[in-house]
Specification:
- By secondary structure, this protein is mainly alpha-helical.
- The chain has a domain at 11-26 and 56-112 and 121-139.
- 50% of the residues lie in helices and 11% in strands.
- It has a 3-stranded antiparallel β-sheet with strand order 2-1-3.
- Strand 1 and strand 2 (44-51) form a beta hairpin.
- The radius of gyration is 21 Å and the shape is elongated.
- The two termini are 24 Å apart.
Length: 158
């Protein structure tokens, strides 16, 4: 009987869940138009249009979040094996710190004619959660590679 090779969430550690949740929600939140307010008329702030966070440096942070979330899904949930130049936790810490840095730079590099809105601060909070999960992932002990299960009669002369 063939077994399906679907996604298995039981393989996720707490750190993996925090990275997956923080980075995944960060990416989705970057598409919601609450990051910046636009326009002033005669010196008064008018909420005519709102701008999402998927632009400039915050778009880079959103794409890094997407990469981090996909990596956790592939490595842990789908059990895809590939070699990385360093421990996955170390790579996730680097990517999360870059994402956090680009989010912090967000208010400085806002779109012309707009001001920072409350959505950017939610994005910053999500980036902090993502970075914390990456740090937890880095702090986890390295799991030994698992061997594929041996079938009945393997290795015996019969």
């Amino acid at each position: 009987m063939a077994q399906g090779s679907g996604l298995d969430a039981s393989r996720l550690t707490t750190a993996d869940k925090i990275v997956l949740g923080g980075a995944g929600i960060f990416f989705v939140w970057s598409l919601v138009p609450t990051w910046y307010r636009c326009c002033s008329v005669l010196g008064f702030e008018v909420d005519v249009a709102r701008v999402n966070g998927f632009r400039g440096v915050t778009a880079i942070a959103a794409l890094l979040a997407l990469v981090a979330a996909v990596e956790v899904v592939l490595r842990k949930m789908a059990n895809v094996r590939y070699s990385l130049p360093a421990r996955p936790g170390l790579i996730h810490v680097g990517v999360a710190v870059l994402g956090l840095l680009f989010t912090v730079i967000g208010p400085v590099s806002k779109p012309a004619g707009s001001s920072v809105s409350w959505g950017l601060f939610i994005g910053l909070l999500l980036a902090l959660v993502w970075a914390y999960g990456a740090y937890m992932m880095y702090s986890e002990p390295e799991a030994p590679p698992t061997e594929p299960p041996v079938g009945p009669g393997a290795g015996s002369a019969g």
